[in-house]
Design a protein that fits this description.
Oligomer: single chain
CATH superfamily: LmbE-like
Structural class: alpha/beta
Strand content: 15-25%
Radius of gyration: 17 Å
Strand order of the largest sheet: 3-2-1-4-5-7-6
Number of helices: 6
Number of domains: 1
CATH topology: Rossmann fold
Helix content: 25-40%
Distance between the termini: 33 Å
Amino acid sequence: MKVDILAFGAHPDDVELSCGGTLHKAIIEGKTVGIIDLTRGELGTRGTAEIRKAEASAAAKILGVSFRENLGFQDGFVFNTKENQLEIIKKIRAYQPDIVFCNAIDDRHTDHGKSSALVREACFLSGLTKINTKSEKGEEQISWRPNAVYSYIQWKNSTPDFVVDISSTIDVKMAAVAAYKSQFFDPKSTEPETPISSQNFIESIRYRAADLGRLVFTDYAEGFTTDRLLAVNSIFDLK
């Protein structure tokens, strides 16, 4: 199955928090989208891996993605190894995305930056014909390199290289985030408080999108960074 966008996240909820609005907007526009989580988030202070699996499934349905998978890498210890690169290469070749989204290049959680480097390097290596991989059915895979790899913004308030207007999908994004009831603000929860379980944090997801939107004269936006030069066919493509 070929997809237009393949979004990777170190943990279940990374994608929803950072680019959920962009993904749902692409789906509304007729694009195909898939999500791959690298870990089960089993080291999270609140909830369990099983709970987060169910929450991730619910969030995926809200966004309307074609599929969601989990590679089962070890939470907290995501490393840019040959073995991990090959697992991601297999997925890139299986789904042949035109665009890949990945974690922030530099962020508070150590898994985020490491996952970003891992995915970005795997995207490059996936285009090398002399790296041999097989599909889950044991068939030889052909090389594939995405046209673009973009890192979404997470905890740190990084300056984006570009933003996507998500004014029409902000409510769906917030609904997908809210599916992770174990992780975020819940006044009835008796679990320990964390930096992301406060009401301030959940409100910050919306007001960050509002602030990025304000800067480009729209209501809400999501920001992305890129490590390569951006190009447009016409100066009129820029807004």
